[in-house]
Amino acid sequence: xxxxxxxxxxxxxxxxxxxxxxxxxxxxxxxxxxxxxxxxxxxxxxxxxxxxxxxxxxxxxxxxxxxxxxxxxxxxxxxxxxxxxxxxxxxxxxxxxxxxxxxxxxxxxxxxxxxxxxxxxxxxxxxxxxxxxxxxxxxxxxxxxxxxxxxxxxxxxxxxxxxxxxxxxxxxxxxxxxxxxxxxxxxxxxxxxxxxxxxxxxxxxxxxxxxxxxxxxxxxxxxxxxxxx
Length: 229
Prior knowledge:
Blueprint: E1 8-21, E2 24-37, E3 41-45, H1 52-60, E4 67-73, E5 79-81, H2 85-91, E6 92-96, H3 107-117, H4 122-135, H5 151-163, E7 169-173, H6 181-198, E8 201-206, H7 209-212, E9 217-222, E10 225-227
Parallel strand pairs: 3-8, 3-9, 6-7, 7-8
Antiparallel strand pairs: 1-2, 1-4, 4-5, 9-10
Helix pairs in contact: 3-4, 3-5, 4-5, 5-6
């Protein structure tokens, strides 16, 4: 895709990822090129095992490619690598299928944790968390721990947590996969509306064609290769 408007946010070139499995090399991604514009909503589709989660992990800096490079243009227009905790903390938010909330913390504490790790004062982080939880429809569930929340409510907490540091990019890995159709649709619409409000880029990995149909652009992964559309 072209970047005629100068709005390129992320530029991944020739990404490959190989894992060593005993004496065997498992090639999960093979030569993936991907460009993402600011504010763009992209669906990443493919069957289980196609490499979707691995690609998201590389794009967000949770894992490193075996070969290839990823450049990210931050809020100041400076290009930087995606391989540092500092980058993830300030520029990327993650939403996972399994929520990954800390069971001993309530909703507010789960949400403000990334802000505290980024150096935000507790009082300010708590206020930000409460505002976000209200935005995702959980203003009356602030003191509840994950075990006291439904699956849909836990995913809303996870979305609020992903947004706390005002990321330019949110990566969502099968965010509706553990939810029934009604809750799944609500979560998708919530992500879409917040994406538009904040002007952030959003990549959702999914095997659900109904989710993909609502994206601005759809990418297909098959056996670690990005198929042109």
